[in-house]
Amino acid sequence: MTHTTGTNTCPTWCIALHLDGDTLHHGASIELPVMRRPSPGERLFRPELSATPMTLELVAHQETGEPAPWIAVLHEGAAVLDLTTLSADHLAAALLALAADARR
Ligand SMILES: [Zn+2]
Prior knowledge:
Strand content: 35-45%
Helix content: 10-25%
Bound molecules: zinc ion
Structural class: alpha+beta
Order of helices and strands: EEEEHEEEH
Low-confidence stretches: none
Number of strands: 7
Number of helices: 2
Number of domains: 1
Protein backbone atom coordinates (compact mmCIF):
# COMPACT_ATOMS: atom_id res chain seq x y z
CA MET A 1 0.00 0.00 0.00
CA THR A 2 1.14 3.53 -0.67
CA HIS A 3 0.23 7.10 0.17
CA THR A 4 1.33 10.38 -1.36
CA THR A 5 3.59 12.87 0.44
CA GLY A 6 4.52 15.90 -1.61
CA THR A 7 5.58 14.63 -5.01
CA ASN A 8 6.50 11.13 -3.77
CA THR A 9 4.26 8.13 -3.55
CA CYS A 10 5.22 6.66 -0.22
CA PRO A 11 4.84 3.23 1.37
CA THR A 12 2.27 3.32 4.19
CA TRP A 13 5.05 3.12 6.81
CA CYS A 14 6.95 6.17 5.46
CA ILE A 15 7.09 9.24 7.68
CA ALA A 16 9.65 11.18 5.61
CA LEU A 17 8.71 14.74 4.64
CA HIS A 18 10.71 14.47 1.37
CA LEU A 19 11.81 18.09 1.48
CA ASP A 20 14.28 19.40 -1.09
CA GLY A 21 13.97 16.36 -3.34
CA ASP A 22 14.78 13.82 -0.61
CA THR A 23 14.01 10.42 -2.14
CA LEU A 24 14.58 8.16 0.88
CA HIS A 25 11.47 6.65 2.41
CA HIS A 26 11.87 5.77 6.08
CA GLY A 27 9.60 4.69 8.88
CA ALA A 28 9.57 5.67 12.53
CA SER A 29 12.68 4.28 14.20
CA ILE A 30 12.49 1.99 17.19
CA GLU A 31 15.06 2.44 19.96
CA LEU A 32 15.81 -0.95 21.47
CA PRO A 33 17.81 -1.05 24.70
CA VAL A 34 19.70 -4.35 24.96
CA MET A 35 22.33 -5.87 27.22
CA ARG A 36 25.46 -7.10 25.44
CA ARG A 37 28.49 -9.15 26.41
CA PRO A 38 31.39 -6.93 27.42
CA SER A 39 34.27 -6.87 24.95
CA PRO A 40 37.47 -8.79 25.79
CA GLY A 41 39.12 -5.50 26.77
CA GLU A 42 36.23 -4.57 29.05
CA ARG A 43 36.33 -8.03 30.67
CA LEU A 44 40.10 -7.73 31.19
CA PHE A 45 39.85 -4.46 33.07
CA ARG A 46 36.42 -4.96 34.62
CA PRO A 47 35.99 -8.71 35.21
CA GLU A 48 33.01 -8.03 37.50
CA LEU A 49 31.07 -6.61 34.55
CA SER A 50 28.49 -9.28 33.62
CA ALA A 51 26.71 -7.38 30.83
CA THR A 52 26.65 -3.84 29.59
CA PRO A 53 23.82 -1.80 28.07
CA MET A 54 23.65 -0.51 24.55
CA THR A 55 20.87 0.93 22.39
CA LEU A 56 20.10 -0.32 18.91
CA GLU A 57 17.98 1.64 16.46
CA LEU A 58 15.73 -0.28 14.08
CA VAL A 59 14.23 1.37 11.01
CA ALA A 60 12.60 0.44 7.71
CA HIS A 61 13.86 2.37 4.70
CA GLN A 62 13.67 2.29 0.93
CA GLU A 63 15.18 4.52 -1.69
CA THR A 64 12.64 5.68 -4.28
CA GLY A 65 12.85 3.25 -7.19
CA GLU A 66 14.07 0.31 -5.13
CA PRO A 67 11.73 -2.67 -5.46
CA ALA A 68 11.54 -3.51 -1.75
CA PRO A 69 12.23 -2.01 1.68
CA TRP A 70 15.17 -2.78 3.96
CA ILE A 71 15.32 -3.21 7.71
CA ALA A 72 18.35 -1.48 9.19
CA VAL A 73 19.84 -2.23 12.59
CA LEU A 74 21.98 0.72 13.63
CA HIS A 75 24.31 1.38 16.53
CA GLU A 76 25.41 4.95 17.17
CA GLY A 77 24.16 5.96 13.73
CA ALA A 78 26.09 3.29 11.81
CA ALA A 79 24.39 0.32 10.16
CA VAL A 80 25.29 -2.96 11.83
CA LEU A 81 22.91 -4.90 9.59
CA ASP A 82 20.74 -3.87 6.64
CA LEU A 83 18.43 -6.76 5.78
CA THR A 84 15.63 -7.68 3.42
CA THR A 85 12.32 -8.02 5.24
CA LEU A 86 12.48 -11.80 4.75
CA SER A 87 15.95 -11.94 6.29
CA ALA A 88 14.72 -9.78 9.20
CA ASP A 89 11.94 -12.35 9.74
CA HIS A 90 14.50 -15.19 9.66
CA LEU A 91 16.85 -13.38 12.05
CA ALA A 92 14.03 -12.70 14.52
CA ALA A 93 12.87 -16.32 14.43
CA ALA A 94 16.41 -17.68 14.81
CA LEU A 95 17.13 -15.36 17.77
CA LEU A 96 13.90 -16.45 19.48
CA ALA A 97 14.78 -20.14 18.98
CA LEU A 98 18.38 -19.70 20.15
CA ALA A 99 17.37 -17.71 23.23
CA ALA A 100 14.73 -20.31 24.15
CA ASP A 101 17.24 -23.17 23.76
CA ALA A 102 19.95 -21.31 25.70
CA ARG A 103 17.66 -20.78 28.70
CA ARG A 104 17.02 -24.53 29.12
ZN1 LIG B 1 8.23 8.41 1.61
